[in-house]
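Anyone have tokens for Cell division protease FtsH? Sequence:
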Amino acid sequence: MTDAPCVAVREHRAQLDALTARLLAAETLDEDEAYAAAGIDRNTAAGARARGEAPEADPAPGLPPPRATPGLTATGGRK
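Reply: yep, here.
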């Protein structure tokens, strides 16, 4: 296994195993629970950066600006 998907799985195996264990226990997870189960800070995850939700991140081309969340700044920081 030397292709990029296999490398990605190997690099993130512990996170995938933790997420799998949590899913087996709970059957369903919302987005916050899935990030927590994998030990990923959702505010700095790749998806948050692409959506412009991470601190100092601009949305990727073609994505709408981040939506406002009560109690948070547009970049996800607390007011």
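Residues 4-40 form one domain.
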